[in-house]
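The material for today's practical consists of a large collection of protein records. Getting from the letters to the tokens is the skill we practise here. To make this concrete, we reproduce a full record directly below:
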Amino acid sequence: MNPRRPAALALAAALLALTGCASTASKTPASGASAPSASAPSSSAPTPAVLAVDEHVGGSTLKAAVGTTLTLALHSTYWSAATSSAPDVVAPTGTPTTAPSPSCRPGGGCGTVTTTFTARAPGTAHLTATRTSCGEARECPPDQRTYEVTVEVTG
């Protein structure tokens, strides 16, 4: 037996396994957030959508229906928890969490600050977060101090 064959088979099996684990959600260019899979089983009551949002969609406008859950994860522990300009339209759900990365050097700010919101009523809300530090003893430039995304909620 060729000594490289077991390694090639193992690699092929690993690639197939990873392909099978790939997400079926699609990324919509307009919103930058994951949309529910089209292959999800249907039921009499629609499942509320979940939008996962991060700093890559900052400055954009997202469209969401009433009942949609928005999870905003900013990848630096120097960010404040995000707030909503219109809590009657997009309200925070639960307590924001900060999850530092265990492999980060002290003062690196590695990790995430995550805030979850629910679209409650039609209207527009701005989700914002701020930071002044971009690293230990390193002040953020003005254009990196504020994060904002606009959420337009439809009935």
